[in-house]
Amino acid sequence: MKDLEIELCGERLVLLPERAAYRPSNRTLLVADPHFGKAAAFRAHGLAVPGGTTAETLARLTAALERTAAEHLVYLGDFFHARASRAAATLDTLARWRDAHPHLRITLVRGNHDRHAGDPPGELGIECVDGPLPDAPFAYAHHPEPAPACYILAGHIHPSVTLRGIGRQRQRLPCFHFGPRVGILPAFGEFTGTADVPVSEGDRLYVVADAQVLEIG
Amino acid sequence: MIRIRRPDTTSDPRIEPAERWFASRGWEPFAFQREVWSAYLDGESGLIHAATGTGKTYAAWMGAVLESLAEGSATGAKAPPLRILWITPLRALAADTEAALRAPLADLELSWTLESRTGDTSAAVRSRQRTRLPTALVTTPESLALLLSRDEARALFSDLRAVIVDEWHELMGSKRGVQAELALARLRGWRPEMRTWGLSATIGNLEDAKDALLGVRAESTPGRIVRGLVPKDIVVDSLIPPTIERFPWAGHLGTQMLPQVVEAVEEGETAIVFTNTRSQTEIWYQALLDARPDWAGQIALHHGSLDRARRDWVEDGLRTGKLRCVVATSSLDLGVDFSPVDRVLQIGSPKGVARLLQRAGRSGHRPGAVSRVTCVPTNTLELIEVAAARDGVRAVSVESRHPVERPLDLLAQHVVTVALGGGFRADELKEEVRTTRSYAGLMDDEWQWVLDFVTRGGDALSAYPEFQRVVVRDDGTYVVEDRGVARRHRMSIGTIVSDASITVKYVAGARLGSVEESFIARLNPGDRFVFAGKPLEFVRVRDMTAWVRRTKSTKGLIPRWMGARMPLSTELAASLRARLEEASRGVFRDPEMEAIRPILEVQARWSRIPRADELLIERVKTREGHHLFLFPFDGRLVHEGLAALFAYRISRLVPISFTMSMNDYGVELLSPEPAPLDEALAAGLLSPQGLVDDVPASLNAAEMARRQFREIARVAGLVFQGFPYAGKSARQLQASSGLFFDVFTRYDPGNLLVSQAHREVMERQLESSRLGQTLERLSAGRVVITEPKRTPPLAFPLLVDRTRNSVTSESVGDRVQRMKVALEKAADTGR
Q1: Which of A68, A14, A61, A16 shows the shortest CA–CA distance to A35?
Q2: Where are the alpha helices (DSSP H) in B527-589?
Q3: pLDDT of residue B121
Q4: S-S: B635 plus which of B78, B311, B376, B568, CB 3.0-4.6 Å?
């Protein structure tokens, strides 16, 4: 795994190829859009999606936490995908994961899916707040909307970028996208799609390519 | 039309009423019509093949009419319940078919009701049909599947006597044909004595067509193949560009030929100008109008995206001879006779002999006339294709249509349909499905997998208690209980045909037709495009409708629809190679070959004209990178597979990334660094050995299967679009087929739908058996490598007219690093 450390608003921020960002100064790990139980919600409606995506998402989360030794985990919204995501097996997997990480402080900044799906159950020990959640010089939110006197770190978009090379090659990769006042993290969940983001002059773009994070253009 | 009197065949007294009805119209039945009538009355099933417009419709229909007359259902009596199903591939044909079928009913005073039921049927008629179906129903495979999904499906068909499938050749090579096979098996299970008749154009494999239509049950009668009228004389000629030197080497618009086309249209009373794509139709319609503004009102366009009412108006104009010219796609290939048509033009290569015959057959229905089709080349190389197609017509080498072998996505759909339509028992349905040609070889484990897929959401090893689709009752019956599942399933039946379509409407309200969503998705408000012959400005999308307004400017963006590009057929490809072989020896037969001579001489000077036993490889360096052009001349489908295979085999030698493009003539491999061609040839680049491993390996890299999965996901009911009443919760169930594919590949490697995607790519896209034959041919022949300074004529279209894929043996990181460098370079130069 090859991380990439950047400076943002005078703060160090480590971009992880697990598709998360780590802030060393207060040992905070930021994760956007896990969409837990999305596959279960699909199954509940008769769409045959295989199991294992929640476990894989959690395994990646464990890896990121262990590598960074983070003490505080902040979800930038969309914890559950839908109300039907609260299936017994999914809740059980999440509870067992929580038992294995008893001392971790976890906060969820609510997103649009959380409004329909509801907050995570109390035994998962997740503090739920409406964004933006200030943590100067940043504020954490789900929707990437600028706010006064802080730099917003958000999710919601599931950003990706399509790279084109000589010989007309194309490659679509999830990315971190930092604009002048808002930064967007890639979607963390295993069973989530992506959307290409428009890039403006002066934006900073970092793609997740297999096990590394690379700066682009 | 001249009918030849054959008095000796009138010996069956049962067919007298039909003889009399024909006589009342001034007609004399053909021998094949009499044969079918008698066979029908004997309870036989079969397949009738002949060109369009030669009386197949009444051959099949009058049998059913005669039977009913004999039973004495007369006027005044209540119309009998559903007896005859008439299946048509295009809902556009339903109205014409209905009119043709109606004629004898009134004259013979049969108390039948006759109605259509397709996607175009009005809500009022649908609602009436919900309580009572007509005696004879004209419908599509999708609408039939929907009927089978009704609770009371079995009762609906309890009086069914016969199913007649029109244009079977058109259906049989597609999943819609398999959908029809499954529906027929279902109906036959309920009504074992039911007759099945198919109407087909003449194709290369009529036995397969018959088996697919009639099923393969051992105890069933063999069924007969009836040959209709022998084709008329067919003339294939072309409009030759006046100055070949200035004619483009690539492209597919061909509007340079406009003056000649206008002249040809003027020569005839009524002309059809066939194109290969809907966008070409729009372009040519505009161009003809611009050239002859005085033709406004006498010229029209016709394609499958247009609104039904508009198509009806056009077809009516053709039938009555009111229109001078109609520009059309394959939407006019099928269906009823347009007798006044005396001139048929084909823009671009017909790409196949059967298609050319079908289109030629649109003209010359007047006494003594021959069928003639005039091809209009859109680039120089198409002249060779026209000459080759003429050879194919002369040799009567008509293409086959290959039925689809047991697609599991469609089986999953069918199983849910049957579960909805009254339910089933597993073993009974398995045996029923196996009576179709397509699923005759269905393995027990495949069947079990499909059953698990719809009942458990995966194979038997995984248990998902929350999964809800088909449930097994205690008595062993499989049914659907969840209303949401039922609604979604019914909405997704019939999405096989095309991409999600979006209605095009004026802001003021009038409906224009529909286009693929993928096209609309690329538009921004204010963009202009031409649709239905009108320049339009795109306003916005709302409620599955694209709102547009008229614009004055005719300089618009032309719609480019998906999926309309036909590959060259095997038969035509072989004729093409023979023509090139002649040219390489300095023989230029026919006006087309004489015309293209200067261009082929440039090819010979800069590179070489390949002989039939040679594989020409051209290496060219341009600003884009290093190009390898290889010319197997075997059609785009085969080339798509060859491109992936060649790229894969070379990339095993050195880390390299290729971008590939292909057309009907050859393959281009483009790489940032020169490819080690000589080394690759020595290592067996062209060898048919190892194909079984190499093709799937190259496929993974090329992601072709992932693309193919789009259709499979839709058919199997994983992805669906457009639920009018679904509400917000449906949005949370949307995921792209690509995401499904990735998740299946990673978490459920045994998923048979994923295997099917690979298999479909192998068999249908790449035609792996044809791929093997091509490699046998190439490796038995000689390789000729040239290094032209400029891009020669044969390679030129590959350079400018591309459809692309890529293959790489580098890591993602390496590729990204290099792309990054390229981006920076581009930035430095200020681009």
Answers
A1: A61
A2: 570-584
A3: 78
A4: B568
Complex ipTM tops 0.85: no
Residue B750's CB is within 10 A of a number of other CB atoms, namely 12
Query: Band of the pLDDT at B460, cuts 50, 70, 90?
Result: low
Among the ranges given (A123-127, A185-189, B588-592, B819-823), the one the predictor scored with the smallest mean pLDDT: B819-823
Instruction: Kindly report, residue by residue over A55-66, the tens digit of the pLDDT.
Output: 999 999 999 999
Q: Which two tokens stand for residue A92?
A: 């059980």
Q: How large is the angle between the packed helices B691-702 and B636-651, nearest 10 degrees? A: 90
CA B474 to chain centre: 43
Kindly list the structural domains of chain B, giving each domain's residue range(s) and its CATH number in brackets, ordered by start: 13-228 (3.40.50.300), 234-394 (3.40.50.300), 408-495+700-765 (no CATH), 501-550 (no CATH), 596-699+767-828 (no CATH)
Nearest to B823 among A113, A192, A217 (CB): A217
d(CA B33, CA B277): 35
DSSP letter (8 states) at residue A91 = H
Confidence of residue A200 (pLDDT cuts 50, 70, 90): confident
Least confident of B150-159, B286-295, B424-433, B699-708: B699-708
SS3 B276: coil
Most confident of A23-32, B53-62, B111-120, B248-257: A23-32
Interface contact B622, partner A, CB < 8 A: no
Q: Is B717 on the interface with A (CB under 8 A)?
A: yes
SS3 state at B385: helix
Q: What pLDDT does B198 receive? A: 95
Q: Residue B58 corresponds to which tokens in the numbers above?
A: 């009444």
* B chain contacts of residue A166, beta-carbon cutoff 8 Å: 624-625, 672, 818-819, 822
Q: What percent of chain B is modeled with pLDDT above 90?
A: 37
Q: How many CA atoms lie within 13 A of B212 on its CB side?
A: 29
Distance CA B345, CA B325 (A): 10
Task: For residue range B374-389, list pLDDT tens digits in order.
Answer: 999 888 888 999 999 9
Specify the DSSP class assigned to residue B642: H
A216 in a structural domain:
no
Task: Confirm whether A134 is domain-assigned.
Answer: yes
Q: What is the Cα–Cα distance from B261 to B284, expressed in whole angstroms? A: 10
Highest average pLDDT, of A53-67, B707-721, B807-821, comes from A53-67
Note whether residue A215 is domain-resident.
no
Tokens 């009499």 sit on residue: B34
Min Cα–Cα distance to chain B from A121, Å: 19
- List Cα–Cα distances, B202 to A50, B93, B657, in angstroms: 45, 19, 45
Q: Inform me whether the C-beta atom of residue B651 falls under 8 Å from chain A C-beta atoms.
A: no
Q: Is the pLDDT of residue B261 over 60?
A: yes
The structural domain count of chain A equals 1
- Dihedral of alpha carbons B563, B569, B574, B578, sign: negative
pTM value is: 0.75
Coil/strand/helix, residue A24: helix
| CA distances in angstroms from B568 to B634, B781, B799, listed in the order given | 7, 22, 19
**Per-residue pLDDT for B4 more than 50?**
no
Which tokens belong to B315? 């077809």
The pair phi, psi for residue B618, each rounded to 5°, is -110, 130
A50 vs B806: CB contact, 8 Å cut-off?
A: no
Tokens at A9, concatenated:
């608003």
CATH at residue A14? 3.60.21
Is residue B207 a contact partner of residue B172, using CB atoms and an 8 Å limit?
Answer: no
Chain B residues with CB under 8 Å of A40 CB are 464, 466
Give the type of residue at B533: G
Please state, in angstroms and as integers, the Cα–Cα distance from residue B692 to each residue in B443, B688, B762, B820, following that order.
Answer: 21, 9, 10, 36
pLDDT of residue B505: 84
Which is more confident, B699 or B36? Answer: B36
